[in-house]
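Wait, can you check?
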Amino acid sequence: MSRTLVSLFALVAVLYLGLCAALFVFQRALIYHPQPRAIGAPATLLKLSVADADVLVSVRPHDGPNALIYFGGNAEDVSLSLPTFSQAFPDHAIYLLHYRGYGGSSGSPSEDSIQRDALALFDQVYAAHPRIAVVGRSLGSGVAVRLASQRPASRLILITPYNSLQELAANQFPYFPVKWLLQDKFESWKYASRIAVPTLLIAAEHDEVIPRSSTQKLYTHFANGVASLRVIPGTGHNSISESPQYLKVLGAAL
């Protein structure tokens, strides 16, 4: 082999390793897109008691046994759902978690930190509301299913859910060793088999972000009779909540 080819292969290898290093270092910037909080009146905010961050929760207090905890997508300001959820579910206290770095919460988001905050929020809510519906959308579906496998949720609703973030990343970056590079894998399938409460998976008919095959694959990991799958026609990944059927399906599940 000529020196030119050897040099070329060496250059390609260096470039490839450099790209791998860049993916590893900046991976969380590709996953998380923090948003500011649009609705932030003191009456609608709760500061979650955690040791290493000030984590905020948009809330609509309500007396009674029922509560809804919601985990949003990777670029979602969950406070925008507060008026809609409050009107649609008047008999539920509403808790919408702002991930670290989102909506005024301090710190930086990661799978482990978000999961710790989710557990802390559930425990605090459960002290006042024994029937908690856990709802997760897109990225938040991975948070919700793991939480429901660890705490006594009354029901679980997953909106545009995926089987695992690792699989999605591997499809998006097929020429890189995603399995070894990715730190936040959000492997929902691992927790699905542990769920025993009624579960609803809601898919968008024309989801351009999470393939239907990923949602259906997750569905197969739930025990028989635990989960059901609904597809909302004419919707995409980001437009699903604009459909008139969206709140009706959520309300029926609750």
